[in-house]
């Protein structure tokens, strides 16, 4: 297996400025279209507040980041840090209050749900903790569904090839209820791959799986990055799952709070512990969060 | 557990609205006709009047009780199924199935009692109206005074409460029973359906054996058509499954992704569809058969130069009232079961949307399903209805088809179509307001 590609996930962080600041400068953005395909996902000052008045909760607070194509990034943070909101805003499942989201260089518009769905289904793949397969469709039908919904021609051979690749070539006609959790998640991965999306978002994909199936699924996600050149964003709270990624972004109180390349489970776990401490400290003196 | 039951009704009255409504309407109808018994039993009522009223009350009372029972049972079953999560929670908290059963049955009894109490006022008025109708028709002497007593109250409260308690007991037993043993029920279902079809065919064919001028002639085709409707309704889900095997390809071609998903959904959801198809087939079959047979009969009486006897008028009024009751109750059942079946699928719609379906495509799936269901229901219902109409027309007159034209049938079909499509699409639209990601989380 080839060594992990150097990760250039960019976080609006002070000490990374030399390399990363250029992503955010205006002049750079104008120059960028020529290399547009190299960037799979970009968020610019994305904020999201839930509720109003006293009960308002800032779930995301001006998050800016950029992920290159072909990267495998884990997003980690304590509960309530805004992981899920980040994923939903980046994936077009929820609309940010402020900021911009660009997938494969194209800006996500704030149009109707139908417009957002059409944007999503050509550019984004999903893998969820609860699989979200349709119970009345077989493995093969579930996998080709996004193509059918998009009105694209379903290439049977390709669907079968992907399913064979995820190890389900023998189970094309099974219904989801007849499969184990690990197998269902592999169907979900195949379904996410079938449209060749710019980014695949995986939200706690191993949350409902036993250790062994979890390892298989994570390995498969890593393989899709290596073999298909997909870009995968993995949201998780499990340091072991995060260690499969090329790099980890840490999130606390709706802001980016650190970055780790070539992570190991131990290093991630340690960082998470400190993150918890610092969040508690910050909440105590209500000061700004220090960057790493 | 009764305190839980009372609390649960008080805190969430909206959820019991469907049950309350069907108990209320059911009790109104039963009490209205029950009051005819009371009126007939009063001293000083002549024999003809008394007989007119007693016959009507018995026929509609029996008929109505059955329908009311079905309507209440259908709304309750749906209600209990929607509360599967709450029931699971209670079981995990340590409630035994018996305790849960007492809670749900208790709730249903409370709701049914409330419905019956509310029904007393309208039923008193309705009873008077009915009596006036009988008087206007000359079936009851003008001096007869309306009465509302033991028979009305007893039958009204009895049917509403018994139906609720019985249906709740069966529904909750199904909900609390772990493990699946369905096949036996499927076979019993098929057997019952076939039996109804055989009996219905028998009834319809008997018409030919009866003399063309016999007064009771219409009973055979009418009951035959009703039994055929019931038989079709029971067998419809599996028939539909087979039909869809053939229709899969064409549907995907015509309906795009929506049609594709509809065909696959319908094929695997037989049990849930039964609840929707049953009221639709019965509605179409019974309404068509009764209205046309009554029409042919009235024409025949007029043409043969006979004066309409009191009995003829009785039968006519009765038929129309029965059709009215069937229409109202089938509509309640149809709306209720469609609403429940559709809102229950919020999670499924969420998954479709996450897989890339636009709201329009989800509505397309629901729309195609509604169209297929409506067509199935209307075709089977019409077959049952026509099976009763043709023999009656052939024996009573020398024609094959009744002379009224298709207007009545078209009206019946229009009502069924509007109700089915309107409820499905309306409910689905409302369900789609929940963001997709929330919809799947709630259901998971």
TrEMBL record, chain B:
Transmembrane regions: 16-35, 55-80, 100-127, 147-170, 191-210, 216-240, 273-293, 320-341, 362-395, 407-428
Annotated ABC3 transporter permease C-terminal domain residues: 64-177, 321-435
Keywords: Cell membrane, Membrane, Transmembrane, Transmembrane helix
Principal subcellular localization: membrane
Compartments where found: Cell membrane
Membrane topology: Multi-pass membrane protein
Residue ranges the record marks as coiled coil: none
Pfam family, one: FtsX
KW Disulfide bond (keyword) present: no
Family label: Belongs to the ABC-4 integral membrane protein family.
Protein name per UniProt: FtsX-like permease family protein
Organism the protein comes from: Streptomyces mutomycini
């Amino acid at each position: 297996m080839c060594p992990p590609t150097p990760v250039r996930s960019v976080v609006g962080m002070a000490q990374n400025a030399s390399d990363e600041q250029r992503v955010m400068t205006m002049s750079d953005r104008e120059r960028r279209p020529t290399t547009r395909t190299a960037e799979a996902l970009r968020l610019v000052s994305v904020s999201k507040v839930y509720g109003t008045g006293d009960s308002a909760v800032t779930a995301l607070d001006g998050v800016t980041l950029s992920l290159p194509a072909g990267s495998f990034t884990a997003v980690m943070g304590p509960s309530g840090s805004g992981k899920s909101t980040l994923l939903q805003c980046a994936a077009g499942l929820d609309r940010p209050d402020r900021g911009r989201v660009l997938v494969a260089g194209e800006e996500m518009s704030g149009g109707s749900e139908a417009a957002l769905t059409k944007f999503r289904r050509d550019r984004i793949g999903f893998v969820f903790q609860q699989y979200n397969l349709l119970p009345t469709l077989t493995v093969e039908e579930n996998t080709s569904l996004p193509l059918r919904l998009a009105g694209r021609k379903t290439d049977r051979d390709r669907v079968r090839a992907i399913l064979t690749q995820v190890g389900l070539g023998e189970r094309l006609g099974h219904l989801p209820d007849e499969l184990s959790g690990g197998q269902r998640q592999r169907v979900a991965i195949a379904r996410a791959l079938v449209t060749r999306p710019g980014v695949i978002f995986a939200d706690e994909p191993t949350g409902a799986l036993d250790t062994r199936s979890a390892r298989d699924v994570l390995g498969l996600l890593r393989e899709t990055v290596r073999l298909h050149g997909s870009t995968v964003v993995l949201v998780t709270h499990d340091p072991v799952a995060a260690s499969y990624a090329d790099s980890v972004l840490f999130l606390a109180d709706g802001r980016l709070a650190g970055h780790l390349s070539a992570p190991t489970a131990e290093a991630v776990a340690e960082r998470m512990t400190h993150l918890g401490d610092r969040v508690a400290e910050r909440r105590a003196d209500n000061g700004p969060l220090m960057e790493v | 557990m009764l305190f839980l039951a009372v609390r649960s009704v008080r805190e969430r009255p909206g959820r019991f609205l469907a049950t309350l409504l069907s108990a209320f309407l059911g009790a109104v109808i039963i009490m209205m006709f029950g009051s005819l018994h009371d009126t007939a039993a009063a001293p000083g009522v002549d024999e003809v009047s008394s007989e007119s009223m007693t016959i009507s009350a018995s026929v509609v009372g029996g008929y109505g009780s059955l329908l009311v029972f079905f309507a209440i049972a259908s709304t309750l079953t749906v209600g209990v199924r929607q509360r599967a999560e709450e029931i699971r929670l209670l079981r995990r908290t340590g409630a035994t199935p018996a305790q849960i059963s007492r809670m749900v049955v208790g709730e249903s009894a409370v709701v049914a009692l409330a419905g019956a109490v509310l029904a007393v006022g309208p039923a008193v008025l309705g009873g008077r109206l009915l009596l006036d109708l009988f008087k206007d028709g000359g079936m009851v002497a003008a001096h007869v005074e309306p009465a509302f007593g033991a028979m009305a109250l007893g039958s009204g409260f009895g049917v509403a409460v018994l139906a609720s308690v019985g249906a709740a007991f069966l529904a909750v037993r199904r909900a609390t029973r772990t493990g699946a043993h369905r096949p036996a029920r499927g076979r019993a279902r098929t057997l019952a359906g076939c039996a109804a079809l055989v009996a219905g065919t028998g009834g319809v064919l008997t018409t030919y054996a009866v003399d063309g001028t016999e007064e009771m002639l219409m009973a055979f085709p009418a009951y035959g058509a009703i039994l055929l409707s019931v038989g079709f309704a029971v067998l419809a889900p599996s028939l539909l499954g087979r039909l869809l095997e053939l229709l899969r390809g064409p549907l995907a071609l015509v309906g795009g992704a929506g049609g594709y998903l509809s065909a696959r959904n319908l094929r695997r959801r037989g049990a849930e569809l039964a609840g929707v198809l049953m009221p639709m087939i019965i509605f179409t079959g019974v309404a068509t058969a009764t209205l046309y047979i009554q029409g042919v009969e009235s024409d025949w009486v007029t043409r043969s130069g006979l004066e309409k006897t009191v009995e003829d008028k009785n039968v006519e009024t009765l038929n129309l009232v029965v059709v009215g009751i069937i229409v109202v109750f089938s509509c309640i059942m149809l709306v209720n079961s469609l609403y429940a079946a559709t809102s229950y699928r919020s999670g499924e719609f969420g998954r479709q949307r996450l897989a890339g379906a636009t709201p329009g495509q989800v509505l397309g799936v629901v729309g195609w399903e509604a169209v297929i269901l409506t067509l199935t229901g209307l075709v089977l219902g019409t077959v049952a209805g026509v099976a009763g109409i043709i023999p009656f027309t052939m024996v009573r007159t020398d024609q094959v088809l009744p002379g009224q034209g298709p207007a009545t049938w078209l009206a019946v079909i229009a009502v069924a179509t509007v109700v089915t499509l309107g409820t499905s699409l309306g409910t689905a639209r409302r369900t789609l307001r929940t963001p997709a990601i929330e919809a799947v989380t709630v259901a998971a």
